[in-house]
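Hi C.,

You asked whether I'd gotten around to modeling the 398-residue construct. I have! Everything is below, sequence then structure, no commentary in between.
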Amino acid sequence: MIELELMECLSENGGYRGVMQLFSRYVGTRMVLTDEIGLTLASADNGRDMGSPQLTGVIDLGDHAEVTEERGAYCWMGDKYALTRAGRTVGALYIDALTDTPPSEADLERFTLAVLTEKQKQQLIDQERSRHLDAFLFDLLYGNVKDSGDAIAQGELWNLQLTSRYTIVALNIEGGCIDTADEENVDRLYRKFSADLAKHREQPLLLRKGAEIIWFKREEYPAVNEASADEAIRRTGERLLAKADQLFPDKKVLIGAGRPRENCTELFRSYQEAKMARELGDTSPSGRIIFYKDVGVLKLMNNLDVRELTEFYQDVFKPLFEAEEQTKEVLQTLKTYIDCDLDIRTTAETMYLHPNSVRYRINRTEELLGRNLGKFSNLKDIALAFDIASLYKMKGRL
């Protein structure tokens, strides 16, 4: 009987929430349904829908779980029932541990079939939607959309508010080329990120391109100040990086953020900036979330002639390369000294050296270079040479 009711519910587009209301009423208790990677699909209590799936959290503890509702305001313990069919994991059902009469194996099989049927239906819908939406987003990212009016009208087909200001935020997994296992993990990360954005009331407008996940970050309205907007991106980015580190523990993952754009036909510029920030920021210890506006002079040098930049670098440091000294040690001390605003004590603490050792190395560097570090023009040249090194060491050009 329950099997017919479940299938009838699906035929009437009841979805996950509909079958959960039916099954929870049938069993007579509260329960939560998750997919195979732990994302909440629906929750119900004795036939009553328990609200948005994004507001129900499940902390899996093995054969049971801790369930939180309304952002952790209420908690209950649930027994875990793995939902599998033909050796394939469909998801998991968490039923209140205090339930007197749990469902039979036969009832769980019927419920699993209903969930699998709905899952296959949703996959087809998502694939069809994504095929057209992704093509449109790709056109935006590569500057193929020239008329903002046409773009706004087309965006309305997917409920996109392209009259708003957007920033492109792009995550990339080291290497670019990914194998089958990585492909599955990128898909998991994409889905986890989408669910996280929905949970935090952000528009989950995402695009996946190989080992890259691209987020179209819509700015809040009314407009917030730049610092607040950056902090919002940073908080979301840190949550995303934490998820990425779990799935890709042996790979470097970086996030770049472009500048916000008022006109949707200019989003390709924000995307190019996000990629450049990510690439150039890989040379600095500032963190794994890099904003284009913070890259500094590197973004100017990136488009200059490689040969000229290389020759400038070599001209500045040529005396060090020719001297019979420990060049790497000297350069490291000099760079740290400049990064520490020419403060001997801070440099010594950073490098775990005695201040006198730092002072000796700096004096010796001045002698070898033939430059007085107290003169701004000399410091400017040396700092620029270090920036060139940061830029081109990454590209294998120095």
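If it helps when you're writing up: The two ends are 73 Å apart (CA to CA).

Thanks,
B.
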